[in-house]
Design a protein that fits this description.
globular; 9-stranded mixed beta sheet; 18 strands; single chain
């Protein structure tokens, strides 16, 4: 893919305190863009100055929600190299989401080339401080200027970069989660496995309620029986039960997380048996009472691993591992972030040097 580069006339000042970056608040100098038209395919690939998009008020994304996105990171090693983690897998997942949303695929090699070119252009924006990274948000939207419920004939694919601080500035502190039994995130046959904005919009009401009750995240139950655990917030959820790592199976209602897959593979490598199956909320309550439930954590790109110290279902609260991070949670976090930051061997071939 031929990528034209148009450099910004003036560059933004880099933040002085990298550990105070937060998440998703600052954006770099450049972005990648290319366009799609039926009959022509993808064209006009370019890196250009970061700035507003121009859309018709009738652009179909604004009316029918035909939109998908991805999230991945670039990491700076102690030696100054910049690494990407499993970028091709993000490309494959983008196309899986696109198939569900009737959107054209981006050739995986073009996706990786676009990410690599943009990160190379924005190399100075990759933070140096421990725990920091450059978050990348590839996005595709429907841009045809027409009303009527049907797939668009025109699309825009773009990538923006956001330098991000350490997700845990005070360490891996376990969070409190609220088990939601009124609202649902997804049902089988829906768009739960697609990374599309509508899934996140549908979660906001329950998240608002949980926050008012003093909880950091929501644990979603299935949309039919309201008894089987699915995701926690926008992360995949995992439990250590009876000496095994247990997580919900991929049956079309939850996102096939790349961090989830990485943790599953690393757990098996480290000798922790893994079960991908249905997990009822009753099993968790009983496991807590019997001592079989020893750890719980979410997995996702932003946090990598988010330990859970307490969950509340209806009027019953369960404290997990005395509210402390568990040994397997810590070990998996250390192993995975060690690979991402180039501190541990990449035996799986997950890392690409920019």
């Amino acid at each position: 893919m031929d990528i034209r580069i148009e450099k910004a006339g003036s560059l933004k000042a880099k933040p002085e305190n990298e550990n105070a970056l937060g998440f998703g608040a600052l954006f770099s100098d450049h972005m990648f863009i290319m366009e799609y038209d039926d009959g022509q395919g993808w064209h006009s690939a370019r890196v250009q100055p970061y700035g507003p998009l121009s859309l018709e008020p009738s652009a179909m994304v604004l009316h029918y929600g035909q939109e998908i996105f991805e999230g991945l990171k670039a990491y700076r090693t102690d030696s100054g190299d910049v690494l990407l983690f499993r970028a091709k897998d993000n490309a494959l997942r983008l196309n899986q989401s696109g198939e569900r949303m009737c959107m054209p695929p981006v050739p995986p090699e073009d996706f990786v080339a676009a990410v690599t070119k943009l990160v190379d252009t924005e190399r100075d924006w990759v933070p140096n401080s421990p725990g920091t990274s450059l978050y990348l948000r590839p996005t595709m939207i429907a841009t045809e200027a027409r009303l009527g419920v049907h797939p668009s004939h025109k699309y825009l694919f773009y990538i923006i970069c956001s330098p991000s601080g350490a997700y845990y500035p005070k360490g891996l502190a376990p969070i409190r989660i609220y088990v939601e039994d009124t609202y649902v995130r997804a049902t089988r046959g829906g768009t739960g496995y697609a990374k599309t904005g509508g899934n996140y919009a549908a979660s906001l009401k329950a998240a608002e309620i949980a926050e008012k009750k003093g909880y950091e995240q929501i644990l979603w139950l299935d949309g039919v029986e309201r008894k089987y655990v699915e995701e926690v917030g926008s992360m995949n959820m995992m439990f250590v039960i009876g000496g095994k790592l247990v997580t919900a199976a991929l049956e079309g209602t939850i996102l096939p997380g790349i961090t989830r897959d990485s943790v599953v593979k690393l757990a098996k490598k480290l000798g922790l048996p893994v079960e991908e199956r249905k997990i009822s909320i009753d099993e968790l309550l009983e496991g807590s009472a019997s001592g079989q439930l020893t750890e719980a954590f979410g997995t996702g790109t932003a946090a990598v691993v988010a330990p859970v110290g307490e969950l509340t279902y209806k009027d019953q609260s369960v404290v997990i591992n005395n509210g402390q991070i568990g040994p397997w949670t810590q070990k998996l976090y250390d192993e995975l972030t060690g690979i991402q930051w180039g501190k541990r061997p990449d035996e799986q071939g997950w890392v690409t040097k920019v």
